[in-house]
Amino acid sequence: MRKFFYIIIAASLVVLAGCDGPATKTQPSSVAKLSTFAFAKNDSMPGLAKAVFTIEERLDTGLVWNQDSMQYGTRLDSVVPRCTFVATPGAAFFTLPDTVCRLTGYDTLNFTKGPIYLTIRSADKSTLKTYEIRATVHKVDPDLYTWTQLTDGIYPKDDSEQRVVEQGDEFVMMVSNGFELNAYRSADGASWTDLGEPVGLPAGTKVRQIISDGTMLYYGQQNKIYTSLDAIHWAENDVDYSVVTMIFYWNEEVWALVEHNGYELATYQPGGLVLSGLQPNDFFPVSDFATVTFQSASWRERAMIIGGFAENGASLNTRWNLEYSPHIKENNGYRLEEFSIDRPEFKSMTGISVISYNNQLLLFGGVDAKMSYFGRDILISKNEGLTWEKADSTKNQLPEVYQARQKQTAIVRDNNIYLFGGQDANTTYSDVYKGRLNSIDW
Prior knowledge:
Number of strands: 32
Helix content: under 10%
Largest sheet: 6 strands, mixed
Number of helices: 1
Shape: elongated
């Protein structure tokens, strides 16, 4: 038989009406209403005291709940509830699935066994009010990255190279086997449409050098830049400088590396190429490099060009940093620096992919100068590319079925990471994986 324990708080106040006037007793309140609800601090469970509870008054049973779930792993099996009331109650007690106990402010309760109710009786015993207490904890680890394979292959395995870019709300994969070109399109990364063979691109097109501004696709070769709005029909545009490679779309401009007294960065605009005045040395990559764009901690637009092959075929360990600030007086506000000069421990790598995600840089895949694959480990940089370390393999690891590879494409869309294709020593993949940090948009 359940036992009901009540805490009766008798409170009488004596009000002095005058020096020799009679004492007056306050009348017991008829109000039974909760003012605040919280969990007492517990050093072994730091998330408890941080929980903020909302009290919803309803005609029947009120509701007390925490809108923001407590951190993953917070235990609710031994917590001390703390309550305050609008008026001093005559009694307050908790009803649990297996017992009823009075509110003391010190006893521990188990909030994991089902619905819990707090009942308040007014001091004059005329009013009863019951509240349902709901305490929620995140059911997933916020620091865990979860991965899903969207497709195991867009096209049959062969010796092709690929490049995936975004165009509008869709992904476009450009494929070349050295003789033929092909294009595929997808809205979600899972279902793909074969668009057929592109028209208007030159022989020897290197699809990994195709870039996108989100609407238009660009490819450069010699004194031509080719553009397309649908990935199939390409228009040829004459330019004044020989294009070594397209680099990226950044800071609302299309960037290319051109030949002009050596190398020089240039932007492509209607009417042709505009030289930037930024002239890197011969150890600037011309192929198989990675690029990433982001906003720095100082609120400046930044981009990095990492690794790749130099014109002489050398595998590079360079990290070129391109930064824009209106306070930079030269080169229209742009500055180009090479980080690898004072960070030589950075390994030579080609065929990598780098993204900006969760306020850090993530690096996938690649090979070193001896064509040895780096493996499945993800590298992260928390200081904007200065130093790198392996990600926590218990929290941030690719699926076991994902083979180590190079030349994959990594794209971030709607806080999701998409990894497309790539190749290892024996296989060219056209699979797609989608990853996400659990807490990225909490």
